[in-house]
Amino acid sequence: MANLLYKLGLFSARRAWLVIISWLIILATTVTGMTLFAGTLSTSMSIAGTPSQLVIDDLKASFPVANHGSGQVIFHKTNGVAFTKEEKQAVAGALDNVKVLASVINVQNPFTAQAKLDQNRQKLIDGKQALLDAPAKLRDAQKKLNAGKAKLVDAQTKLDAGQAKLDAGKKKLAAAAADLDTQAAQVAGAIAQLQAAGAPAEQIDPLLAAQAKIQGGQAAIKVEQGKLVVAQATIDAGQKQINSGNAEIVTGQKKIKAGWAKVKANTPKVVTGAKLMAAIKNFRTVSENGQTASATVIYNKPITSVQAADKEAVVASLTAFKYKNIQVEFSAEMTRSMPQLLGPGEIIGLVSAAVVLFIMLGTFVAAGLPVVSAIIGVGISATATMALSGALPMTATTPMLGVMLGLAVGIDYSLFILNRHRRQLKMGTDVRESIGLANGTSGNAVVFAGLTVIIALVALNLTGVDFLGLMGSVAAGAILVAVAVALTFTPAVLSLLGARVLNKRERAKLAAAASEGTAAQAENDTQAKSPTRDVFVTKHPWITILATAMVLIFAAQPLSSMRLGLPDGSSEPVESTQYKTFKLAEQAFGAGINGPIVVVATSDTALAGQAKLDFQANVATAIMKNKDVSSVLPAAVSKDGSKYLFQVIPMEGPASASTEKLVFAIRGQSDSIHKRFGATVGVTGLAASNIDLAKKLGDALPGYLATILVLSLLLLILVFRSILIPLIASAGFMLTVFAALGATVAVFQWGWLGAVFGIHDPGPVMSFVPTIIIGVVFGLAMDYQLFLGSGMREAFVHGKSPRESINFGIHLSRAVVIAAAIIMVGVFGGFAFSDSTSIRPIGFGLAAGVLFDAFLVRLLLVPALMRVFGKAAWWIPKWLDRLLPEVDVEGAALEREHLH
């Protein structure tokens, strides 16, 4: 490998312009590919197979509309007064203008929605009250009906008695009339006989008097009979009234019976309605004080497929809405875009790297080469990544990781070759020969170091998380390009620069040495003056071990409380519209409104009518029993009546610990809900997806870390042919990881130094940050261990004592490792101030990791432990030593061949 790289370096030096132009053509090609084929980067992260993703996949079939993207728009009165009628109409007009955009399928008017909510609540209140009042009214009506019925019965009794009396009177009069008629007939017959016989008047007169008396009696009977007829008419009229009253009683009884039936029928509906209203009682689209309104814009595609231009059109339309005292803000879904590849923080990092290079190298020309080399490499890898984004689903963080690592390692790898070349030039080596040797020695180490980082990044695919594996693969590609650029572009430019990579003083000394015919090495190579003199760690190993261990353990302490999650609107810059939307919504409607949980209940049987409403109410009530629930909104029902969508509003925000517990609590209700209501429950939504993502990555972290540790042990055993040194170096790596993650928790979760890093609302650590930090820090830690340890091994193999070997390796590589580490800390630290909330913790964690690993672990702790163990540090079983292939990381054989 060293000889191959030596020849590659010579080729690049001889064909400098060909190499430089070739890289520029490659850059132009990738830029063109990005312009033609770049796709939309997603702002959301998901993992296939997680509970939330399985629910989302099911929703695509059952609720296609639920898969449509949406965004929140907040309208806020800044003068402390509720929205007026005119202002509500103005807002409605502005929303109507958005509704006609091609990318929008619907816009929810918050005032209309709130009015409907209030109307339904009032209807339910009125209906519930009416239902509560109905039994008393029905009982009162029944009481009155019973009283009327009793009166009718009493009247009927009296009427029946009167009828009986009347009938008796009629009978008596009829008998009297019949008796008088008989008497009248008898008297008339007697009078007729007497008159016929010519009886005297004296005999006839008594009979005539009796006849007159009988006729008087008959007349009196007729009078009484007339009275009876009148009495009968009165009784008949009374009976008619009684019959009418009885009919009214029957009708009233039917009405009361119908009333009870209505109460019985409406009671379940009202109970169901009461349950539903109780579940949504805290939900509002307009704040209680009437000063904040939340509108929802629904797109015609999933949010990840909505083009940036379509989002901008919606924002532009509503931004054009200007109304006195009305503030308009937008959620992250509507405004989040591709983060800047190089923002102010990143540029400051590059500038700091250039300053370090200038201080180390003493010339602007030499200092600029690693930066230019890194920028070309990053330009190629970043634009190539963007060109692939049209074919591969990528998150906005994917290219950023490649940019971050490409810049850092690109500068360092070019610096390693440049530094070796400068050292050889100062020894009097010919320029082109020095370029070839630098490429074959330090370039060989660069290849080895690059491979370790690439392996660590590609190993991210072992986590089983697609987007994280893609991030690792893309970043590995960036490292590969950085290595290729360092091995070809850097030698080509070095050839064109010639001796100008040395400053004037160095060139003067080199010229003086050449004119005097003396060797330049002793004068220019300070390391050669005393290559084995003691450094601090070999003089005071125990102090070094205790001090560094205490610092690292202290830094690692916060790790025990680490929570994983994803950033929400509260982590955005304070002046951003996303942050303002998040905070205004939180103040007006509660923190949970910013992180709703979506629950899908699947019934074992299709439901319809009242059964459908009952099911919704029962499930909503069951979910409401969780203490961290603010509201449960029945959102939709599938066409077949088997799937029911609910929107659960937590008490706290999407990144809170209580919301995380709530997601698992609702999932834990699935069995009880199935037993009670015959339905299974699934949970999804942004908050649930983030929680599942954090759990998936948290579960994969130990396995990934174990894999990395095994790789580090194997790699270090292969390079250093030792058992103890790999164990010490790997233990140091673990301490670095714990300290870096602990520092990340302290800043981003606890809020320490929040003002410095713009952390105004601390929250959980981004779920994939620990994995990335472990992978990248592993690669970089191995780089530093190789650069420092290979010199120690070379010295030990050539007969120096363990103590002298440690000193030799530190003197040989300390300056360049320190410079490289400072550059990396500067570059990564620049990303810690990025506008992207997803990039900040990665940049900070990597900067902290490099700081801890390079300055504390590799330069202090590991050498001090090697000093304590002495010769035992280099022990390896003979059988294993015979099996291991010889690895010449620094190209020492090539150096001996060409310089000795």
Describe the protein in words:
The chain is α+β, with helices and mostly antiparallel strands. The chain folds into 4 domains: 213 residues, Up-down Bundle (Multidrug efflux transporter AcrB transmembrane fold), CATH 1.20.1640; 167 residues, Helix Hairpins (Orthogonal Bundle); 245 residues, Multidrug efflux transporter AcrB transmembrane domain (Multidrug efflux transporter AcrB transmembrane fold, Up-down Bundle); 88 residues, Alpha-Beta Plaits, CATH 3.30.70.1320. The protein is 71% helix and 7% strand. The chain contains 30 helices and 10 strands. The strands form 3 sheets. Strands 2-3-1-4 form a 4-stranded antiparallel β-sheet, with helices on both faces. Helix 2 runs antiparallel to helix 13. The longest helix has 88 residues. The radius of gyration is 49 Å and the shape is rod-shaped. It starts with a helix and ends with a helix. The relative contact order is 0.12.
Please identify the structural class as seen in this structure: alpha+beta
Uncertain stretches: 521-528
Number of beta-strand segments: 10
CATH topology of the largest domain: Multidrug efflux transporter AcrB transmembrane fold
- The CATH architecture classification of the largest domain is Up-down Bundle
Biggest sheet descriptor: 4 strands, antiparallel
| Average predicted local confidence, pLDDT | 87
